[in-house]
Design brief:
The chain is α/β, with parallel strands linked by helices. The protein is built from 10 helices and 8 strands. Strand 7, helix 8 and strand 8 form a beta-alpha-beta unit.
Length: about 290
């Protein structure tokens, strides 16, 4: 069943677990993630990036998720990830995305507030929830390019959190405490003390971007101190690559059927999803 962030994150915050959020596209990813999440009785967030929505992508992804959501007995959020274009935000909401994330992290504080507030106004007319970002989570994007900021993260200032949340009206806030997007060159060291300060003043659940390949103990410590949603993408891509290598080695016949070719990819992704559900303490959170 399709829901918004409002319907799953407050409970996660209260009970100290994090809802896994997976960037995905196409049936192989969506089906593997949903099947695994339902088996684990975990809520789940399916996310799409702007480039995934180009052309007819927005119709394929929204149509597929809306077409199958009622077949699952778990809460599912269809979420637009890292949007910077207001037109894309509006289009995603029109196509049934139940949540959007506006990324104004590269903007000045006041401009980030202004634009995030505009997104909230658009989203709330359709009943969608909004996530914004305060501070900058740097690293590599999906094309291997550096995020702005010379590859360095700008950590969230706890003193700005309350004003930002109250002024914008967002339902979730992504914070920068030491993670990075993509595959790490060296392991991160999360600033849990900073997170504690942020969590004390934030009226909304907190989100951790760059969750892939972050040490388990640091991830779980962050959850204990207020993180309620964790984004995963690089880990999913690595798992699917390993599955693809196994698919390429299949020699059962010269023309294997698609189900056989896709099976190792689905299995690798499903294993990753199951592991993240356990890591984030979200297993058996759905009655």
């Amino acid at each position: 069943m399709l829901v918004t962030l409002n319907e799953i994150l407050p409970k996660a915050r209260e009970q100290h677990y994090a809802v896994p959020a997976f960037d995905c596209m196409e049936d192989v990813m969506i089906r593997s993630i949903l099947d695994t999440a339902e088996q684990a009785k975990s809520p789940v967030i399916l996310m799409a990036l702007e480039h995934d929505l180009q052309g007819r992508g927005i119709k394929y992804i929204s149509g597929l998720v809306h077409g199958v959501a009622d077949a699952y007995n778990i809460p599912i959020v269809l979420h637009l990830d890292h949007a910077e274009n207001m037109d894309i935000v509006a289009e995603a909401i029109e196509h049934g995305f139940t949540s959007v994330m506006y990324d104004g992290s590269q903007l000045a504080f006041e401009e980030n507030i202004r634009r995030s507030k505009e997104v909230v106004k658009i989203a709330h007319t359709k009943g969608a929830s909004v996530e914004a970002e305060l501070g900058l989570v740097a690293g590599k994007d999906i094309h291997g390019d550096d995020y702005p900021g010379d590859g360095e993260s700008l950590l969230t200032d706890p003193k700005e959190v309350l004003e930002f949340v109250e002024q914008t009206g967002v339902e979730a806030l992504a914070v920068s405490i030491g993670t990075a997007h993509g595959v790490y060159v060296s392991l991160p060291h999360l600033d849990i003390a900073r997170l504690e300060e942020i969590n004390k003043v934030s009226k909304v659940p907190l989100v951790l971007h760059g969750g892939s390949n972050t040490p388990v103990d640091q991830i779980q410590n962050a959850i204990r101190h207020g993180i309620s949603k964790i984004n995963v993408y690089a880990d999913s891509r690595v798992a699917m690559l390993e599955g693809l290598k196994k698919s390429a080695a299949i020699q059962e016949r010269r023309d294997p059927i698609p189900n056989i070719l896709f099976r190792p990819i689905r299995e690798a992704l499903s294993l990753l999803v199951s592991e993240r559900i356990d890591m984030f303490f979200s297993r058996n959170r759905v009655a």
